[in-house]
Amino acid sequence: PVLWLSMWSAGNLAEAVVLENRFTDFTKKSKKGKNKKGNMSNLVQYKRVSDDEHLINFGNQTLPDIHIDYKGIPKEERGGTSVKLLGASCLYCFAATLGSALTARGAEVRSISGSVEMLKGKDEIRRTKVTEMNISVEVEIDDQYEPILEKCRKIMERGCLLTYTLEEAIEITYQINRKS
């Protein structure tokens, strides 16, 4: 499956088949396993098809490949894709980790939703970078699970795999609210 990140409209079947063939050729070389240090490898592949078209392959069935298609989009409106992908990864990681923490402690979670705001600034040599990330999630649970949510709020102050990996480079804040 392919996740389309574009203003691409209905298009035609022949174009979709060509794109599918690009992914098939692109992903044949995908490898799984462990790296030299014995750690599990999480390979993501990228292919620049043209100035307007980019492909990202995740190599698994649970996460669809991404086709970024800028055709017809003015250059000044194309920025921010990488920042949004970074934010989406961190938001997913944080919300999924929170959900796992809650269910591991016996809470029944009806839903978790959230958003992430990322702010950019300059580093000491004037390169643009993400300087702040504000993650906010809302958890829907019954009243009886409020004590578990409080415990998990404290646990989640440490972040998740991705956010604590980035903490030295980006100021990250977390907000966990209960949906009423």
Instruction: Kindly report the average pLDDT value.
Output: 85
Question: Which ranges are low-confidence, i.e. pLDDT below 50, for 5 or more consecutive residues?
Answer: 1-18
- Rounded to an integer in angstroms, the radius of gyration calculated over CA atoms is 20 Å
Structural class: alpha/beta
Say how many strands there are: 7
> Level of helix content?
25-40%
How many DSSP helices?
Answer: 4
What is the chain-wise order of helices and strands? EHEEEHEEHHE
| Strand ordering within the main sheet | 1-4-3-2
Percent in strands = 25-35%
User: What distance separates the N and C termini?
Assistant: 36 Å
Q: Characterize the largest beta sheet: strand count, sense, and whether it forms a barrel.
A: 4 strands, mixed
Outline, from the CA principal axes?
Answer: globular
Describe this structure in words.
With 180 residues, the chain is an alpha/beta fold. It is built from 4 helices and 7 strands; from the N terminus they run βαβββαββααβ. The strands form 2 sheets. A 4-stranded mixed sheet has the order 1-4-3-2, with helices on one face. Helix 2 packs across helix 3.
